Amino acid sequence: MTFAWPQLLWLLLVPLALLVWGLVRRRAGDADAHDKILRAEAGPHSLRLATHRTSAPSRARPWLSLALAFGVIAVARPQWGRLEEPVFDQAREILIAIDLSRSMLAPDVKPSRLDRAKLLTQSLLEKLSGERVGLIVFSGTAFLQSPLSSDYEILREFLPALDPTFLPEGGTNYDALINTALTAFGATGAADRFLIILSDGEATEDDWRSHVAELKNRGIRVIALGVGTTAGAMIPDGAGGLVKDERGAVVLSKLESNTLRELASATSGVYEDASTWVDLAAVLAATVEAGQKGQFLEKNTIRLVERFQWPLALALWFLLVSLYYEFPVRPKSRAITLRADVPATPPRRSAEKIATLLVLLLAPFSLLSPDVRAAEPAAAPEPPLLSKIVTRLANSSQRTARDWAEFGRETVTWGKRLQSAQQPVPEGPVRDALAAVELGSALDAGTTDWPKLRAELEALLQKPEDQQQQQQQQQQNQDQQKQDEQNQDQQQQQQQQQKDGSSQPQEKPEQQDQQQSSPEQEKSPPKQPQDDQKQSAFGKMEEQQPPPEQTQKVGGVPERKPGEQKPPTDPALALPLQKLDQLRDKDSPAELFQLMEDQKQTTPRKKTKDW
What per-residue confidence (pLDDT) applies to 265? Predict the structure, then answer.
């Protein structure tokens, strides 16, 4: 057994020192024992007395020391056993280029040219082991879909989604393909490099020949696979029809292998006809054997197996045992409320205080008439909380401002409950509470809001009629305030209208007369004849109504008067003006904007095949 980090084993001294320190401390505690007389009286086996130094006996913690020791061993990474692993020498780089032009949808190769290219790529990936593989898709443009990598699962995920709509431009541009491949391979590297092209060979441009020399200088060999047949097939357009050229004729796509053959021979590569099934891995192996680079190597390396899991599990187990046995349990603190026993007979002084307060509280009931007492036998029962407060204040020798505030608040609550039950509030308890408020405010003015509490108590003394009058007075004050605000708003609006009227031009006398007579017309509208009442709500459509004088026309052509002649027009501008009139009638601002803009002169693109 070996350790990956043997220098960490020095940390084993820490748990050893902890264990020794615990043992020494325990021996020192035993030496400081009680006298023999005390031990004899208490009993050596029935009771264990603590020393005067500490309330808990000193103890060694062996379980904790073992947990720390095995934890250190796990961190040091123990290793035993041997494991052989294959390691591949990255000596090959392969870029697979798949043609995504619409001609690859031709069904002359089953199921289609594009599906055949995908199947060939999948079969190649299944037989590769360790090579760095990338994926390029191309049509009118080229794009590096997956950089060079040894992870083949990425390529397998991309393959099913490839179709002609993947790229924006149609056609087959080998120039863009070669530029993308040169960028993907990089400028330096000693590995064997292969560019596998799966296409039908119908190139739309011939600019790719200028890059052949650079392919040879970098040692990139092209393996070209012609997917298709010389007889060809028609191209489906994906909507149930067939692809047609600019003349409207149906396109017949055939395999054109000249471009692929020329590209493969110029780079010392291989061309294969993929109209039938081709073992692409065998073709690649044959190309590698004919190459000049180093061969693909596979090596087996031996490494030790990591065994840190075992000491780590033991460390966790000993730690749990240590927490269970070696550390004392601390009970949680609980809030315990002790209830004092109420004496059976209170002292004489306290009894006198209670009697005095009860007399004050019950005095209003004795002053009531017999009719009121008969009508409301239980009109004002005191709540238990208020009674408790009165009892507590009677028993207390020193009363604080907080006590008087509590007494006043409870009295307010008690009185509001009586009012909500439509019962009269006795005046005596409320007067006592007001006296308590005076005493409390004199003791400490910051304990509570004494003015508010005093106002609430005084509100309890008011009769219902007084309260109604007070509410009516408040409502009248609010209504008067709202009326004043509305009058102020009307005055501001009138002032604003006067300012606006002074800034506008003076109206004609006829319009002023009409405006002056308008209030009278509103008061007494004239009677309309029956013919006017029967006409449409939109008025007579044939009669052209004059536009209002205060409106402003924006845009358009200036209107000409009936007697005004049309200005002469330049003959050279007659046709453009006619087109502009047509666009204006069509209400097409987009086309009009395009005509108004100065379009940049671009070089006309050469007409090529886009399939």
Answer: 92
Amino acid identity for residue 401 in this structure? A
Q: In angstroms, rounded to a whole number, what is the distance separating the alpha carbons of residues 504 and 517?
A: 21
Kindly list the distances between the CA atom of residue 206 and the CA atoms of 175, 262, 379, in Å, as whole numbers in the listed order: 8, 12, 112
The domain defined by 90-296 folds into: Rossmann fold (3.40.50)
For the four alpha carbons of 267, 271, 277 and 278, in that order, the dihedral sign comes to negative
pLDDT at 434: 86
pLDDT at 235 over 70: yes
Structure token digits, residue 156: 């397998």
Question: ω before 111 within 30° of 0 (cis)?
Answer: yes
Long-range contacts of 596-600 (CB under 8 A, 24+ apart): none
Tokens 């250190």 appear where?
72
284 within 8 A of 43, measured Cβ to Cβ = no
User: Please, are residues 164 and 105 in contact by the beta-carbon 8 Å criterion?
Assistant: yes
Cα–Cα separations (whole angstroms), residue 21 to 42, 59, 353: 30, 10, 68
Write down the pLDDT at residue 147: 92
Distance CA 311, CA 276 (A): 61
**430's tokens:** 């409320």
Residue type, 9: L
CA distance 353 to 365: 20
Who's near 100: CB < 8 A, 6+ residues apart?
114, 137, 138, 139, 162, 163, 164, 166, 167
pLDDT at 140: 87
End-to-end CA distance of the chain: 67
pLDDT digits (tens, 9 = 90+) for 46-55: 555 444 444 4
| DSSP type of residue 573 | G
The structure tokens 């003349």 sit at: 247
Q: Residues 6 or more apart from 533 whose CB is under 8 A from it?
A: none
Angle 161-163-169 from CA coordinates, rounded to 5° = 130
Residue 295 is encoded by which pair of tokens? Answer: 């061969």
Alpha-carbon gap, residue 555 to 551, rounded angstroms: 13
Q: What is the mean pLDDT of residues 476-486?
A: 81
Cα–Cα distances in angstroms (integers) from residue 137 to residues 65, 96, 116, 126, 134, in the given order: 64, 8, 15, 20, 10
- Sequence-separated (6 or more) residues with CB below 8 Å from residue 135: 95, 96, 97, 98, 144, 145, 146, 155, 158
Residue 313 binned pLDDT confidence (cut-offs 50, 70, 90): very high
CA dihedral 10, 15, 17, 22 (to 10 degrees): 180
Q: Give dist(CA 25, CA 279) in Å, integer.
A: 80
Distance from C-alpha of 314 to C-alpha of 29, rounded to nearest angstrom: 31
* pTM over the 0.70 mark: no
